[in-house]
Amino acid sequence: MNKEYCEVVVEGSLDLVRGFVVGFLEGRGIQGEAIFGEDHHVENEGKFGQMMRLIGVKGNRVHLIIGVGFHKLLEKALEKRKDELALKIISEKKISLASFGFRYRAYTKELGDELMALFGDPPKGLRVKDHKPKETVSPEGKGVEAYAPLHEYEVKATGTIYGPVSDVINFYGRAEHHDMVELDSIKLEYDEV
Amino acid sequence: MRSAGEGLLGILICVLVYAVLTLVFVDPAVAAEAAAHGGHDIGTELPVWTALPFAGILLSIALCPLLMPHFWHNHFGKISVFWSLLFAVPFLFFYHQVAVYYILHIYLIDYIPFIILLWGLFTVAGGIVVRGSLKGTPALNTVMLLIGTILASCVGTTGAAMVMIRPVLRANKDRLKKTHVVCFFIFLVANIGGSLTPLGDPPLFLGFLHNVPFFWVTTNVLPHMLTASGILLALFFILDTFYYRNEKGQVESGPEEEKIPFKIEGVVNFIFLLGIVCLVLMSGYWKPGHFNVLGVHLEYQGVLRDLGIITMGALSLMFTSKALREANDFSWFPIMEVAKLFAGIFMTIIPALAILKAGNEGALSGLVSAVRESYHYFWVTGALSSFLDNAPTYLTFFNLALGKLGIVESAVPAALAVKAATANPEFILYLKAISAGAVFMGANTYIGNAPNFMVKSIAEEAGINMPSFFGYMIKYSIPILVPVFILVTFIFF
User: Fold this and answer.
1) What is the pLDDT of residue A51?
2) Could you tell me which residue, B18 or B321, shows the higher pLDDT?
3) Nearest CA in chain B to A154
């Protein structure tokens, strides 16, 4: 069974939250992970929120993805240190699902097959939606051209990958190393904690 | 890959056409009559709209590959014929012998030598292969761009791009960020590097065919080229170093591959390349005289140069193994593209050139008087070269400058002789601006110069996410190239 995660939004500077959380994990000897949204393209703020933060109306917010259970310990620890540290938990939400949209194109069969396999058959636990690669073969486009550029082979596709948050984040890391792949930010869906 | 036999057939057709034109039609009586028609200045009579087919073919080249790539790929030759006939049929109908003279003149003086040189350089460069397992560090990438920049003035921007792009892509295959490498390659190897000789970029060869001395651009555009390429190479090194440092530790190392030692194969082609350089130089300095083909003066040295270049290309085909050409993905398609499209360009450019040559007497007198300063020439030539092909653009503004200053083509060498009493400082400055503008600013868009699209396509097939047409302009050419060109303007114009 997949581990359950929740998103904790902490008001404060990223460095301070990062130091506190990592120190807390080490100090308590907790074998767990803390994923900082900013490190993994997790979309956690709308355009309006970003604008408010830019003009200083809203303070810095750090989006942290941690295992359910650990968030309670963290909450208590932050509560205990509230007079010393300018850190405050704004919200806690249990993550039900994570997803990201993708687009790719390739101009060689080899790379096309690799990308179709990567997104068409994602790792166990993940699912793909609306992935319908469109392959075009133009034999007349073989070779080098200058004024009439046409690729001999072309594949284009879009789609969405969704599944448990940690798997989605891991897969995102793999997919983003392909130059011909464009990925949207990871979106989270929640259950109330 | 199309067979070398097709290439040889192409050469044979060229030779036959040349032979027929030069041997069969040389009739002194006809020549004298046509020469008299040649004196007829159509530039003062033609209205501006006669240049519409010229605008049409240039816009077709610029827009069709983007808007309808399949249609364009299959029918560009027919489109070229369409625009040509749109001008040629009424032109012949109204001007008879005069029209025949003008058409023959542009094809014999400009088109055939132009295509032969491009074919020769393309054939020879296509036989040179650079191999080796190189690691795309910022220093190595900068050195490869520098080599490509220098090579571009020797083998032409298309040849240099064809020889260098694959080694550059192979060296960078494990890098995470490599789009900038290809974009700077387009800036330097596919464009700016070609500014030092008439072999480097087609517009400069057209200048050479119109009496601009071979080494004039080498000495006169060198400061501009060094400034632009020096800044761009330094910028590239800084940017590539930044990306390279950020990538450390993130790169997934692929399976261990066999190390291939660095080597250049097909070196015999350097001899043929040298042969082409010598032939072009010979045609610029040896003046044995001329003969007439229907009133068009053809110089013996020009004919000898063209036949010699064909011989060099043929020797390259004979002495280079098929495997080397396959390694460069060599085919005749690019040169067929140039031959078909430029056949149309040279036909339709006739009215534009004639009107501009007429200067204030022509229908474009407004443009002639509006483009006054050297920086006007640099930016107007450059801006048009960014979106239209730079060779006809160069020829257009070259003629504009001649028309404005009342210089005839035969007086061009004297007007460019810096320390001579005949020198025309204004023309020298204009021609520097036109040359630099046409060659440098071809890099502003994918459609500015033929190798740009070729490099983009090869990079995409190697799995590099190249920016779109506007993405290239917004992310690369406008923020990087335009400030460099502004600096060049302030320093030199």
Assistant:
1) 72
2) B321
3) B461
